[in-house]
Input
Amino acid sequence: MTTIVRAQILHTPRDPFAAGAADALEAFSDGGLAYGPDGRIVACGPFADVRSAHPDAAVTDASDAVLVPGLVDLHVHYPQIAVIGAMGMTLLEWLATRTLPEEARLADTAYAAEVARTFVSGLARNGTTTALVFGSHFADAQETLFAEAERAGLRITSGLVVSDRNLMRELHVTPEAAYAQSRALIERWHGRGRLRYAVTPRFSLSCTEAMLEVCGTLVGAADGLFLTSHLNENPAEIQAVAELFPWSRDYLDTYERFGLVGRRSVFAHDVHATGGELQRLAAADASIAHCPSSNAFLASGIFPMKRHCAAGVRFGLGTDVGAGTGLSLFKEGLMAYHVQMVREGGELIGPAHLLWLATMAGADALGLADEIGDLSPGRSADYVLLRPPAGGTLDAVLRNSPSAEATLGALFTLAREECVAEVRVAGERVFAADRAMPTAPSAARFRAPPAPSRR
Ligand SMILES: [Zn+2]
Output
């Protein structure tokens, strides 16, 4: 049976960086999203139109809520939930004193399973339906992450993190062991349901050439494997990489040399990119995960968004927990907005850009642009219902919102996990807040005034 969800609907079926913000945002103040029993969207538009086209559909009334596509997090570390908020350090000190010791605790598989449960449910309760997850250094811990992601029903791409120098001894493996463990995980999890595998060297700083060579071999081990790592995050890190790889032109070259830069490669940060690196990233069709909270938190720097746009380098948003300040992509979008606003000569981005970066841009980086990212017919019904707590600040702002764009700006500014009421992947519920969703039409508490279907 077809289902219609009645809500205020916002999505970005067009790229605001190309089309302009006004043309990118599509909004229906009294909207209907219809999807079939297979979880595919069949219609999205004004509720009255969708209803009359599907008179036999079951209607779920969420007209007091805002519906947006499922959010996509392009860079988030599963083992780092416990270090969120470790202030007062830059990257290399933060890794050595707080983060790597915490990651070493995941050698205890029972603890890893507990972290995996907290992490995966944290993604869902923040409205994140798809993520490229930086995994654990331990194969058993990585196994628990995949198992938990499968149980939860999220779209997760992840892999064993491999390193053989410059971390802690407990986190190092030989290239031979990294190969064998990664192969076993690929065979077990890659392409299973909504899960895919990403070959994950931590960063060049923690990998010998032999390890990067193994990663190059692994990337070709099965169709559709991803590659993820870090790039150009912090000046001290970049300097150290240059010293370890004296033959390299720049940081990107240390990955290129081993065949690790291509359409299914996603590198986090790229705060200090050279012009040559941007050109080569664009030519290779690789993607960047922009993580503005983390970049500010560790004093890494301000992402050169305009230069990435000009070079034609694809980028989306990553929360980068635990240097990032939480799992919310609304929070992350607000941070992206803040830092681009204060960057001298920076470009001004608005709510439509933020929604695009938090949805379709990430979907595109993950090769899922035909499947998710907006609410067009044919795509999977991955969506989030947002219902701010009654009487709170966001509730008051939305009641007086003059336009769809203003509503979206208020959501990025104020909506956090307490506003996420329900989350679905392919029409299947993956999260519901304790507050039960009203099913009776009379439960409507907030409804935008009648307006043109697109504002
Ligand atoms: Zn990271």
Summary: The radius of gyration is 22 Å. Residues 75, 77, 134, 230, 268, 320 surround zinc ion (CB under 6 Å). Residues 291 and 319 are 6 Å apart (CA to CA).
